[in-house]
Known about the structure:
- 22% of the residues lie in helices and 39% in strands.
- It is of the alpha+beta class.
Amino acid sequence: MTIVKSRRARIGAGIAALALAASIGGYLLIKPADESANASGSDRKILYWYDPMIPAERHEGPGLSSMGMKLIPKYADDGAASAPGVTIDPREVQNLGARIVEAKYGTLPSGVTATGIVAYNEREVAIVQARSGGFVERVYGLAPNDIVRAGAPIADVLVPEWGGAQQEFLALQRTGNTELARAARQRLILLGMEPGQVAAISRSGRVHNITTIRTPVGGAVKTLGVRRGMALSAGETLAEVNGLGTVWVNAAVPEAMAGQIRTGTPAQVMLTAFPGETFTGRVTAILPQADVESRTLTARVEIANRGGKLRPGMFATVSFSGQQRSSLLVPSEAVIRTGTRNLVMLALPGGRFRPAEVRVGPSAGGQTEILAGLAEGEKVVASGQFLIDSEANLAGVEARSIGEAGAADPAKTAPKQGRYQTSGTIEKIAADGVTMAHRAVPALKWPAMTMTFRPADPALMRGFKRGDRVRFSFDQTSEGAILRTIAKETGQ
């Protein structure tokens, strides 16, 4: 019994020793492998250390990030074998519900709607003054804000100075001395009499030193400062009358949309007082100062006041018709606005995605204009891009800068020179083409004339306007004249 127990004890001790040796041997086998891996990794050049949760935060060595996460190295050869971007399995992209669209040229719906208030046209103000000193004999019962017609009487004024001058004129007229009579007539006019009044005195032969002061225009009496019995001096203002033939509508345009409105922009005005009726006009001025509280600019629209229906103070809704132009467009939902920059998520070949910085223009109708950072035909993610952007951030993928977009393939973006060349002046730029008055084209036996060219790329006309003198090339095809290149002539 004792021998069996002793043998069992020796067997147990042997098993324990083998287990200990196995564990030590396993440790010795694993450790060299790790050390070998570290040794092989030490040959890779480390650019910086970063936290995948904060890819923009970079450190010179290992440690913890500002969020307390362990930093990992960014190697110089990371991504060397493939283009920049993050690769996502197509099934995952489908599960995300990502919708991919191409950036295309199109016409951005233009138009701005704003609220406005009808106001007087301050250019139709008439100041009624006394041309001579005297005394008010009679007033005609007017009050401020009364509507008067042109030539309506304001007051009868007695002018004592006219009495003696008129008697002298009549006396000289009876003598037959035309020279002296002409001088006396001129004196009466200088004293403030109208030529018609002088002619009436000459015909009647009687002195008349009471004159009726009338308003030269019809409209609303804005101020009235004359009363019966008061003494007047020459040049004193009796009334101020504002015409109502045209009125202004001062529209409060949001600051973000003010760039779409120019002087001359057509406008349609609708008023709650006249439902279903539209008044048309044009922008005559954009006032220079913005309202600091509402962040709006005032666009002044002048419209005809047919029948005097429009009264200052009325509330109006103003719709501006902007000029339509061809622009590079993407769905508005494809633009990621971070507050400091705007991004779109590029869909690259091979299931790769990369953010790209863009400069955006106005948005309308669910479309946003891309001014820079994207080329026609490039594909972007229109929905689900936020999740893909998060994956790109975790992988530390840097966004493509605006400058990189045009530098990728210069040969692809370089304009093709047309076969025929000439120069001319731009007369009209429209969505279907540009009309130019150009010089003769001897190669085609064309004389100097005005015709319309269709741009091969709508982007060619950016920066040009009516009246520019340009040098351009074009091709003559079965579809008409195709504009290939265009540049402003030196000296403009």
